[in-house]
Target: Intradiol ring-cleavage dioxygenase
Amino acid sequence: MNFKTNLMLMLLSMAATACHAQQPKKLGGPCEGCEAIYEYGNKKLSATDTLPKFKQSSPQLKIMGKVFKADGKTPAKDVIIYIYHTNRQGIYELKGGETGWAKRHGFIRGWIKTGADGSYTFYTFRPAAYPDRSEPEHIHITIKEPNVNEYYIDDYLFEDDPLLTANIRKKQQNRGGSGIVKPLLQNGMMTIKRNIILGKNIPNYE
Model:
């Protein structure tokens, strides 16, 4: 190789190294479907959301809690939470004509953004297990906090679900804290409470 060729190869190698060094590590590892957290369109997000089919479904469910920064004490503001789940037949229900991740997640989904106190509330209904009962009832959840990429945390799981076996409990990673919740009847509505700690047990979180 001549001098010009060697110089060009060296410059290309340096550029590739610099580009790689500038790319931050992705928080949370692989996260299929987490991009759906951006699919709220022009909807103005608040700390409360009501999912489709809430009024006509039973048992109705209120999901509430607070989001805290990594110290577990300071309320976290402007955190977007996205949830989705099956209908009462255990299916991710479609209306037809879905785009994006709604093709997989269905239309029973919602988004909130926390206020200054970190609180969040979803009104929905208790999902059913998949028809083959291969997994316990669950609600998927994705987090997007300011200045970092989106990541998933442990699903909401129901303490009283007979499909929530000891083996499944052991496999939980407690991402964001435990997702196992105890349903309580409050004011005629099933209510679950879960506080979330940002970054807890999330790979590459600093």
About this structure: Residues 15-23 have pLDDT under 50 and may be disordered. The domain at 32-197 is CATH 2.60.130.10 (Protocatechuate 3,4-Dioxygenase, subunit A). Residues 136 and 163 are 5 Å apart (CA to CA).
